Amino acid sequence: MSESIKTALITGGSKGIGYGIAEVLIQEGIYVAITSRSQSSADEAAASLNKIREGYALGIESDVRNLQSQEKAVQTVLDKWGRLDYFIANAGVGHFAPIQELSAELWQETIDINLTGVFFSAKASIPALTESKGYFINIASLAGTNFFVNGTAYNASKFGLVGFSQAMMLDVRNAGIKVTTIMPGSVATEFADHKPSDKDAWKIQPEDIGQIVSDLIKLPARTLPSKIEVRPSMPPK
C-alpha cells in the first residue's frame, strides 16, 4: 500500500466515541479498523461506515483484556493495509456503586478493560507504530482527575490510565511515536446503559472527539499536546 495511505485501529469502535472517531477519520480519507468483542457488532458498524467511503472500514472481533487478541487485531490491520499509523485506545466500561456495594468482579472488570486493556493495546501496537512513526491516542475521562461519589472503580481506572499514558509518552517519544490523552466530560453515548436523546444536545457529541483526533494527527511532528481536557461548553445550570 502507498506511503500516502494512512490507517487507524480503534478499540471499542462499533458505537459511541469510537464510532464517532471512525466517521471523522474515514471522511478524512483514512482507512479504519474498529474492534468489538462481537464480530457481528463490528461488521454491522463497519458496513455502516463503508457507506461514507466504500472499503475504508474493517470490523475485527477483539478483546482488550487479552494481549494475544490485541496482537491479532494489529496483525489483521497489517495484513490488510500493510501499515498502522494511528491507534486509538477507546474501549471502556463504567460500573458505579458505593465501595460497600461494589463487587470484586465489577472492580476487576473495570481495571481489566479501562487500564490493563490499554497496556495490552500499547504492547501490541508499539512495534508497528515505531515503524510508521505513528500516534497512540488514549480516550480517558475527566474522571481521571476529578473523583466523585460511587466512582471508586472508574476513578481508579481513569486516574491510572492518565498516569500510564503520560509515562508512556515519555517512554516512546524518542522512537518517533506520539502519545496523547484525551479526557472528555459528558458525551452523548450509550455508555453505562445511557440512552442518548434530544435531551443530550448540550453534551459533547462523539464526532466532536473525532474532530479532536483529526486535528491532533495533522499537527507538525515537532508539536505534541500530551493531555487534553474536554468539557461541554454550555452545560445545564
Proportion of beta-strand residues: 5-15%
If you average the pLDDT, what whole number results? Answer: 94
Total count of domains: 1
As for the CATH topology, it is Rossmann fold
Q: What's the helical proportion of residues?
A: 40-55%
Which strand order do you get reading across the main beta sheet? 3-2-1-4-5-6-7
Features:
alpha/beta; single chain; 237 residues; Rossmann fold; 7 strands; 7-stranded parallel beta sheet
Blueprint (SSEs and pairs):
Layout: E1 7-10, H1 16-27, E2 31-36, H2 39-49, E3 57-61, H3 67-81, E4 86-89, H4 104-132, E5 135-139, H5 152-172, E6 178-184, H6 206-218, E7 227-230
Helix pairs in contact: 1-6, 3-4, 4-5
InterPro entries: NAD(P)-bd_dom_sf, Sc_DH/Rdtase_CS, SDR, SDR_fam
Family: Belongs to the short-chain dehydrogenases/reductases (SDR) family.
Protein name: SDR family oxidoreductase
Account of the 3D structure:
The structure is a single chain. α4 links the parallel β4 and β5. The chain has one domain: 3-Layer(aba) Sandwich (Rossmann fold). Strands 3-2-1-4-5-6-7 form a seven-stranded parallel sheet, with helices on both faces. The chain is built from six helices and seven strands. With 237 residues, it is of the alpha/beta class.
